[in-house]
Amino acid sequence: MEKIIIPSRLQMLIGGEWVDANNKDSLSVINPANAQEITTVPLAAKEDIDIAVDSAQQAFENDTLTPAERGQLLHKVADLLERDKEYLMHLESLDNGKPFDKAAYDVDSCIHHFRYYAGWTTKIHGDQIPVSSPNKLVYTRKEPLGVVGLIVPWNFPLMMSVWKVAPALACGNTCILKPAEQTPLTALHLGKLIMEAGFPKGYFNVVTGTGAITGEAITRHQKVAKISFTGSTDVGKKIMVAAAESNLKKVSLELGGKSPNIVFDDADIDQVIESVVWSSFYNSGQECTLGSRLYIHEKVYDQVLKGLIDKTSQLSIGKGIDSPDLGPLISETQMNRVLNYIELGKKEAKLEFGGHRLEGDLKEGYFVSPTIFSHQNDDLKIVQEEIFGPVVVVSSFKDEEEIIQRANHSIFGLAAALWTKDVSKAHRVAHQIQSGTVWINGYDMFDPSVPFGGYKQSGNGREMGKSAIDLYTQEKAVWLSL
Ligand code: NDP
């Protein structure tokens, strides 16, 4: 594909129109591979959010789409994503630094999501309930919530948006999507495609800006019925407070993780070594499900650690657009945050590989080498806190009882993986791990039909599958005396 041209100034989508912020404020969008400005986007303030919410509220109140028509429109969005797949891959790669070829997975997953929820629109219904009192007809309805605020992070900008947008629209809500300030480009293009598909004006709005100004205005808005948020645990807590202090809007949260990746001595070690390099460093470690705590049975510890170091040393690192194995981190702030953790790790654990910023041709961008630490102390900060960069901490264990206790020693509970050929042990351990997802003999397996979300401080609510229908609807019981 030819080089794409992005205008030097972009607008946001409110009420079906492309607009600037009312006060004309804007934000720079930076390419993390070279720290150059790609474009600018509006910085939406409270008055812009008021207009967006009013137009979404009007679209909700005037909605005449039947479930089947909504399904057709969602299929149309999927068709348009297919048409613009390469363009979206380019945008994601420039804006987020994601390796170009890996951005294909993200866009494919979005297409799959829209088609999956297109199928749901005609199957969202309540029940007829045979109550004990005589002469009563009781049934339930699954009704949309109204205007929903969707706030997403920068690590999978398009995919995290679509995980929320597709089920929210399928259920008949109208949406205000706020992408992260670092990565608004694919969300804005998604707005174009949703309008092109034929959704009525105001149904879908994309507002750009910062969390502190734009995000806060959405989370505190009296007419927003629900917030669906993905991001850090700290901001998740702020959103719950904002919801409580405004209108008690519903809140679902997909937050951080520090996922244990457990290798038993009876695992297929070649398969493990092929996988752990990706589960430790995929997306340059900027992934909520990253297998950032690697636990290896003592009998195979040396073999797996050596294999991981060998594979890591072969990873290519570069600008996303050149399709390397790993791209840059998202921003200077994030790079410095990760480098601070690495310096801390050098004091509290043993550095096995990496541990520095990359120089040479990559010195303009935010590149950090994949880094491996080993330790035997689960209370270390680098073992307990989410680093969100290419850093894995590795430790050995002796038996099943020990590893279950250590795996659960975390404030997080988003995902976990275990590797063994013993089927009974696999299920026994999977049932005792405190996390929303457990993968056995694989990692990062996802499907739109399978619920995803966190235990403990990794969040509440489940995205994807039938669970997301519950997130974006409310149930009404209707009683009739016959
Ligand atoms: P944040 O949690 O701050 O950002 C996620 C989204 O929330 C962004 O759209 C952000 O806006 C918005 N936001 C920020 N503050 C508020 C607020 N007060 N009200 C409403 N919305 C808000 O993530 P960071 O970018 O700060 O990353 C920091 C750390 O968070 C990472 O190092 C990582 O540990 C974790 N993280 C986890 C993610 C996950 O998938 N679980 C994803 C991203 C980060 P804006 O960006 O415009 O400020």
List keywords for this structure.
482 residues; alpha/beta; 22 strands
- How do the strands line up in the largest sheet? 14-15-16-13-12-18-19
Bound ligands, each once: NADPH dihydro-nicotinamide-adenine-dinucleotide phosphate
Radius of gyration: 23 Å
Low-confidence stretches: none
Indicate the proportion of strand residues. Answer: 15-25%
| Average pLDDT for all residues | 97
* Tally of separate helices: 15
By secondary-structure content and strand pairing, the structural class works out as alpha/beta
The biggest beta sheet reads: 7 strands, mixed
Oligomer designation: single chain
**Helix content range of the residues, please?**
25-40%
The count of DSSP E runs of length 2 or more, i.e. the number of strands, is 22
Distance between the termini: 66 Å
- How would the global form be characterised? globular
How would you explain this protein's 3D organization?
The chain is an alpha/beta fold. Helix content is 38%, strand content 21%. The protein has helices spanning 46-61, 67-83, 85-96, 100-120, 157-170, 185-197, 211-219, 233-245, 269-281, 301-313, 332-348, 381-384, 400-407, 423-432, 467-471, and strands at 12-14, 17-19, 26-31, 36-42, 128-129, 136-144, 147-151, 174-178, 204-206, 226-230, 250-254, 260-263, 293-297, 350-353, 371-374, 391-397, 412-413, 415-419, 437-440, 455-456, 459-460, 473-481. A seven-stranded mixed sheet has the order 14-15-16-13-12-18-19, sandwiched between helices. A six-stranded mixed sheet has the order 9-8-7-10-11-21, sandwiched between helices. Strand 7 (147-151), helix 5 (157-170) and strand 8 form a beta-alpha-beta unit. The radius of gyration is 23 Å and the shape is globular. The protein starts with 11 loop residues before the first strand and ends with a strand. Bound molecules: NADPH dihydro-nicotinamide-adenine-dinucleotide phosphate. The site of NADPH dihydro-nicotinamide-adenine-dinucleotide phosphate has 27 residues, from helix 7, helix 8 and helix 11.
